[in-house]
Amino acid sequence: MLKAKIHRMQGEQEKSFIYALKARDISNSTFLVAGQASSSRLLSSIFREIGLMNLAKRYLDAAEMANEEQKGAPLYLFTKIKITHERAFQAFAAKDDVAARDLLLKVADLVKTDSKDDKKAVLIKATNKQLLGISYLNLGQVEEAEKYLYESLAIVGNHENLVRPYIYCALAEIALKRNDLIQGEYYLELMKPYLSKNGVEGLKTLWYSVSASYYLRKNDIQQSVRYKDSVRYNQQHHWETKIKAVDRVFDQLVSSKDNYKNKYKIALACSIALSSILLLIALYHFTVWLRIRKPVEEMAVLHSPNPGSSRGIKENVTVQKLPEEDCLFPKEQKEESEIKEIQISKETEDRLLLAIEKFEDAYGYLDKDISLSSMANDLGTNRRYVSYILRKYKNKGFYSYIQDKRIKYIVNRIKLDTELLDYKLTQLANMSGFHSSSKFSTAFKSEVGFSPSAYIQIAKRETG
């Protein structure tokens, strides 16, 4: 993850993207939630910068979910602030400055300035003040913007970082809004030393933009137009560079996936061949065993106390009768025997039906610890009555009823929110009330006819 951040700071977008993807894959496979949160947040930033806002939001949601799993850990608060800052950047990109300001004010409540802060803490606090200044500037509240920008500059102090030039840029904009060309030029000059560093294409674009405004106010139209052209060129070049980097990485991923598929096919073919050989060996040994067993049984019949009996030694063998139907929920067989002779009034049936409808409207079936007894208690009745109503009106036992409701719920959620197609099975299982992904997969396949993985792949193809 550190390599991804270093390459990003140096403007090497392709390497940054590759290392961020690797960090995410390693974190996912090793269940390191801190790494999942950090890598997903970085990927969200990369996708935002190239305009893929849906992907950016999806990865940021994943980062937030992973971070909440490490609540109480040392990095939790720091990561939460970084995620909130990224949400503010996404709000800026959507021209929603009010939302950006509100997010940044929440961060301000989480951080307090302390003279003992290390460089990382100083950078976070200075960045938050600077972003608040920009949000107020975009909202036209110049005095408030200036206050936060000066506070940010004071926090930075003697620390040298890239927050400083962005503060200068915003102060230059404020000066030009007041038609103070001398102050505007002063802050633009302060920005110049930072423009030669790597990975500052965004800063260059801002400098060109403010410089264009400066020359326009000086009535130097030619220079203003030149800087406006530089803004357009820089934005286009910056965007194309990032898009090409992402495209190359995706090409590499597809190529790697194809190689993996070929290796998988070879391994599968070898497994099938080995299984066939083992099956033939097993059949051979079974045939040999039958040939040996037959004469032994004949000898046993001849020497039995009742040789005239056609059963011989088989008289003592008991045959266990198999159940007529293999039930996924064995407890429901017992339920059926308990409810056959129940008789309840029509008034009670109507009351319980209405109570079950309210239970469903409140998504009571998503409770992971739901049981027949707890549901009966919630409905103000007993287990036998609930089983009777479910069997009579839903044509299901309690367990199959709960399973059916849960799977229908998650399928409808997936249809309404395609972002769930990128969720892990453990997340989907948790959302639909299952304790584990294995139980969820078994239930899903039983109800839908496909495994959840296969269903998701089909849904992805349908949504394009």
Coarse morphology:
elongated
CA radius of gyration: 34 Å
Q: What distance separates the N and C termini?
A: 31 Å
Architecture per CATH nomenclature, i.e. the level-2 architecture of the largest domain? Alpha Horseshoe
What is the chain-wise order of helices and strands? HHHHHHHHHHHHHHHHHHHH
* CATH superfamily membership of the largest domain: Tetratricopeptide repeat domain
Count of the separate structural domains = 2
Number of helices: 20
What is the CATH third-level topology name of the largest domain? Answer: Serine Threonine Protein Phosphatase 5, Tetratricopeptide repeat
The tally of strands reads 0
Q: Which stretches are low in confidence, meaning pLDDT under 50 for 5 or more residues running?
A: 254-258, 294-328
Strand content: under 5%
CATH class category label of the largest domain:
Mainly Alpha
Rounded mean pLDDT is: 78
| Helix fraction by DSSP (H/I, runs of at least 4) | over 70%
